[in-house]
Design brief:
This protein is of the alpha/beta class. The chain contains 6 helices and 20 strands. It has helices at 147-155, 178-191, 206-215, 221-224, 254-272, 304-315, and strands at 2-4, 7-9, 31-36, 44-50, 58-62, 69-72, 74-79, 87-95, 103-110, 113-114, 118-121, 133-136, 139-140, 161-165, 168-169, 196-199, 229-233, 236-240, 279-283, 320-322. Strands 5, 6, 9, 10 and 11 form a 5-stranded antiparallel β-sheet that branches. A 4-stranded antiparallel β-sheet has the order 3-4-8-7. Helix 1 (147-155) runs parallel beside helix 2. The longest helix is centred in the last third of the chain and has 19 residues, at 254-272. The chain is globular and about 60 Å long.
Length: 340
């Protein structure tokens, strides 16, 4: 302070703070939170991302907001294949011992930072109920016209599971993975409340499907990297497989053989269990049949997916097949060898 004619005058000092362009930004807050089923009605998988590694991967959960239960998991680093080599840590925690049809509240993270509070309803542990599904494919970060309705209806409890049958974000790896991050934040308001079950599409192919393989956690993901799997829900046996192994040979021809052998065994087991689960349902990205005139395989006389799977699915009595890829909506009568 200076004194002038008996007045106290404050002296304002300007301080210059220098910032280095090399400052490391630490981000420990959980984001991109999503649920997935494991195939066991008493379990739920929680997956999320942080930019930096954290001291632990934890989910606090319970039947009320006191969150009196804790589950621990693991994290792994994922490095995008783009020129910036951006990295993030993917956290996975399996919740076990869930009571059938019980509502649970949860948040995830660690002492470094916690997510907002979410909730989900565990599956009934019986086959005498009718699951409610929302399913679609080819949903992008831009122009995601269905998203607001999905957000509202999922949080109202209208669906038990959401299926996204390939092609995410357009594309997950775009802008060194930033578009994928934005998309995963967008769907959090859906996927943090119900299992968000996925199939791989052609738009996930970059860097050997690395974004799809790392960002999601489907049943048996450690063995098949989310490319193919099956699980049971209510009276249905759901089979998800990859059509893309037939189009991207550079990532390994062995994937075709491995998947096909697995699929034959899985269908065989599903048919032995028809008394308990009478519905056998398949999901994959590129369809066998379509009426489009865009020149895609499904509109042609020869289709490699039809060639590989039609006879097998017919002989195995598959009840319903769900596909995506064509950006059109069609419901077909039962078709076999090009005839209704």
């Amino acid at each position: 302070m200076d004194v002038l004619n008996g007045l106290l005058l404050p002296i304002l000092l300007s301080c210059t703070v220098c910032y280095s362009s090399d400052v490391r930004h630490i981000q420990l807050q959980p984001e991109q939170i999503h649920l997935s089923a494991t195939g066991n009605a008493g379990e739920m998988m929680v997956t999320w991302s942080t930019v930096n590694d954290t001291k632990a991967s934890l989910v606090r959960f319970g039947k009320n907001i006191t969150l009196n239960l804790v589950a621990k998991g693991t994290s792994s680093i994922f490095v995008d294949g783009g020129p910036e080599k951006r990295s993030q840590f993917i956290h996975r925690v399996k919740l076990t011992g869930l009571s059938p049809a019980q509502m649970y509240y949860y948040h995830c993270g660690s002492e470094d930072g916690w997510s907002p509070l979410f909730f989900f309803k565990a599956f009934p542990n019986t086959t005498d109920w009718s699951p409610r599904f929302a399913m679609y494919g080819d949903l992008g970060n831009e122009n995601a016209q269905s998203l607001s309705r999905l957000q509202e209806e999922v949080q109202k409890g209208m669906y038990d599971t959401v299926f996204h049958i390939g092609d995410f974000a357009y594309e997950l790896e775009e802008d060194n993975g930033r578009v994928g991050d934005m998309f995963m934040r967008q769907i959090e308001s859906v996927a943090a409340y119900v299992p968000y079950m996925t199939a791989v599409g052609n738009h996930e192919a970059s860097y050997n499907f690395s974004h799809y393989k790392n960002r999601f956690t489907m049943p048996n993901f450690a063995e098949t990297a989310n490319l193919w799997y099956s699980w049971d829900i209510g009276p249905a046996h759901i089979i998800v497989f990859s059509t893309e192994v037939y189009y991207y040979f550079q990532y390994g021809l062995f994937l075709i053989t491995h998947q096909l052998n697995w699929l034959k065994q899985d269908l065989k087991a599903a048919n032995k269990n028809r008394a308990e689960r009478p519905w056998v349902i398949t999901m994959a990205h590129r369809p066998m049949y379509c009426t489009d005139t865009d020149g895609d395989d499904c509109s042609k006389r020869y289709n490699i997916i039809r060639d590989q799977f039609e006879e097998l699915f017919y002989d195995s009595g598959v009840d319903i097949e769900f596909w995506a890829h064509e950006h059109t909506y069609e419901r077909l009568l039962p078709v076999y060898k090009g005839k209704v």
